[in-house]
Amino acid sequence: MLEIKSLSKTFGAGVAAYHALRSVDVTVAEGEFFTLLGPSGCGKTTLLRLIAGFEQPTGGQLVLDGQDIAAIPPSRRPVNTVFQSYALFPHMTVAQNVAFGLEARGTAPGDVARRVDEMLQLVQMDHLRDRKSAALSGGQQQRVALARALAPRPRILLLDEPLSALDLKLRKEMQAELKRLQREMGLTFIFVTHDQDEALTMSDRIAVMEGGRLQQVATPRDLYDHPANRFVAGFIGETNFLPGRAAEGQLRLDGFAPVALAEAKAVNGAVTVMIRPEHIIVGREAPDCVQTSGQIDELVFFGTDTHVKLTLPGGASLTARAQNSLHSATDLNPGQTVPLSLPYDALRILPDEAAHAV
Amino acid sequence: MSKRKFSVRHVPGAAPIAIVTFVALYAPVLILIANAFNAGPVIGRWEGFSGRWFVAAIGNDAFRNAALNSLIVAALAALISTSLATMAALAITRGRRLRGEGGIFVVLNQPLLVPEIVLAIALMIVLAQIKQATGYHGLGYLIVAHSTFCIPFAFMPIRARLEGMDLTLETAAMDLYAGRFYTFRRVTLPLLAPGILAGFMLAFVVSLDNVVVSSFVKSPGQETLPTYLMGELRRNLSSEIYAISALLLFASVTVVAASWLITRRKP
Predict the structure, then answer these.
(1) Given A310, B30, B214, B238, which is the most exposed site by the fewest CB atoms within 10 A?
(2) A40 and A181 part of one domain
(3) What binding partners and quaternary form does the record give (chain A) (predicted)?
């Protein structure tokens, strides 16, 4: 179990100070696939480097299994990293790369050889064990980097955007394989990515970061269905935002009649309301929905579904997603005005922008 | 018609100029090598092909002695300057920025900026004092003197190699339980080796053909190959000198070519 307590990192000082990490608190559970997700510059890589020991925190604690490891150098932390660039030693063979961590620790040669064999079989690189690492393809280097980091049996494996250099097909394969390895070994993975799809499909929990702060830590499902704020809602998946006001348990979307909503009880005043495109019902009126209509501006065919871009009577634009089953969506045409239904239980009230502006 | 990019190759007369330049550069050297194989003793009169001057040179004690001195001085000066240059390059490219890094750079390259004769006189004055004080007159002075001006030559390829090296590799080694020394021995040094070897060879060649500093610093009776050649030239211009020059040329070219081949390999 890794407890991160009020961890901060500031580069530079005075007016030139850059706050890469602002008091981050989170606990990563044993055997969890934990993902740090956010745009570049959000602090996710800094957090990973602090856990690895490549950077020293300017404040806070890093507690691994009850011990504060913040002052321990990377060479003595039971944590290994898979680097974005793989960082394989170009002058060594595949097997020598995998053996490096074990040898540096002073493991007996017989045990090193056995563990290297085991790891190379695990990542299916046994047949290339004597190849120089520079002569491998991207996917192969990725596997060797993984085997090298796993060989010394770390308590936590850190992965710094390890799949970003691979092409789409290979990336999908490696995602599945990483997930399988993690489940089989029961090892804690801390995975950094800026790719939301990757994060959603692989993670047990995701920490969304922005501006050096954790915006929300939740399961992929929770993150998608109940984003904590506008940043998270916009970063994970596609979203529509509509302005409105909440008062006394009632939500009034601008231009519509008020609706009684349980969620609205907790807030008062101006709010932003979110609705996912796939929750909007296009072309018919449905019960328990905000009823409106929209003019179709554009239809974009995506195979399984069609994105329908619409303009509401008040001028706001909205994107809906109509699933392409056998008997639907085919009769929509640009320019047409269609009825729209926004189900009450698909409306999410987000605190007003100003409250969490970064 | 697209405009062709300016290239010096398309300037009228570029090819003839290039040819003339190459002839001016290499014809004398070729004539020297040819004369070294001339059977007769008179320059300019070809009496047939022979290796007799090489045999004579190798049988000459004074030449052998000078050649040995040159090799010892070049090897040790290259070793010392390469070690110092490696440390300097590591200090400059690793760790946090040093204060006055620009100044350090200038000092390291000082022998390239200071006219060689000035350096020679300066070294002679200082070393003469030490000679007098200690009574030691051995090769040590030449080795020290050569080490100073060899440093920038050794430094350049090493620094280039270090700057091209991915720092993540060292981070990865530390992440994999390697301490600083283990990281240096298993990762940094093997990757740096071609640069160090190239630096060593450059320093070796620069030391091997140095005349000016050697003439000023050497003790009486001491000769390196170039100073021996200078001395012999004043007395008589024999074909043996051509043979010795050809040998020196061969040694230099071999070392430089080897160094080029080594540095061509990418990390």
Answers:
(1) B30
(2) yes
(3) The complex is composed of two ATP-binding proteins (PotA), two transmembrane proteins (PotB and PotC) and a solute-binding protein (PotD).
CATH number listed for the domain at residues B61-264: 1.10.3720.10
pLDDT digits (tens, 9 = 90+) for A68-83: 998 899 999 999 999 9
Parse chain B into domains and list their residue ranges: 61-264
Q: Among all chains, which residue has been given the structure tokens 């009632």?
A: A250
- Percent of chain A exceeding pLDDT 70 equals 97
Taking the Cβ of residue B192 and every Cβ of chain A, the question of whether any pair is shorter than 8 Å is answered with: no
Amino acid letter for position A313: P
Which range of residues forms the domain containing residue A341? 238-349
Pair A214, A280 in one domain: no
3-state class of A132 per DSSP? strand
Q: Hey, are the CB atoms on B169 and A87 less than 8 Å from each other?
A: yes
C-alpha span between B233 and A267 (Å, rounded):
102
Report yes or no on A354 lying in a domain: no
Mutate: best of A100, A156, A190, partner B, most B CBs <10 A: A100
B191/A100 Cβ within 8 A: no
Residues of chain A positioned with their CB less than 8 A from the CB of B181:
none
Q: Do B166 and A152 touch (CB under 8 A)?
A: no
Q: Are B89 and B188 in contact (CB under 8 A)?
A: no
Asked if B262 and B200 touch (Cβ cutoff 8 Å), the reply is no
Looking at A196, A230, A264, which one is the last position of a domain?
A230
Helix or strand (DSSP H, E) at A26: strand A18-28
Shortest Cα–Cα distance, B39 to chain A (Å): 51
Determine the residue of chain A that is closest to B267 in CA distance: A90
Question: Residue B174 and residue A90: Cβ atoms within 8 Å?
Answer: no
Q: What is the pLDDT of residues A118-131, one digit of tens each?
A: 999 998 899 999 99
Cβ-defined contact of B179 to A91 (cutoff 8 Å): no
ipTM of this complex:
0.81
**Does A356 reside within a domain?**
no
Q: Are residues A52 and A171 in the same domain?
A: yes
**Do A201 and A295 fall into the same domain?**
no
